[in-house]
Design goal:
By secondary structure, this protein is low in regular secondary structure. Helices cover 6% and strands 8% of the residues. It has a two-stranded antiparallel sheet. It is elongated.
Length: 71
C-alpha cells in the first residue's frame, strides 16, 4: 500500500473535491480525511477557566491544612 498526500476541499454539497491530480493508476483506494474545524471564540486561550487556590497558594495541602487537625 502506498500513501499519497493531496490537497482537496469539501464543497457545499459535502462532496470531496480534489484540487490537484492524483499521481496513481486507476483503481480502488481508501480515503482518510483530516478535517480542521474552524476555530470559535470559546477556544481562545484567554477564555479557559481559571482556578483560584485561595489560602492554599504557595503552601502545602496536608491533611491538617484541609481538615481541622490530625485524625
Amino acid at each position: 500500500m502506498e500513501a499519497v498526500k493531496i490537497k482537496a476541499r469539501i464543497d457545499e454539497q459535502r462532496r470531496l473535491v480534489l484540487l490537484e491530480p492524483i499521481p496513481l493508476r486507476p483503481g480502488e483506494v481508501e480515503v482518510i480525511v483530516l478535517y480542521k474545524e474552524p476555530e470559535t471564540a470559546s477556544e481562545e486561550p484567554g477564555e479557559w477557566p481559571v482556578l483560584n487556590g485561595g489560602q492554599y497558594l504557595g503552601g502545602t495541602l496536608r491533611r491538617e491544612d484541609i481538615y481541622d487537625g490530625p485524625r
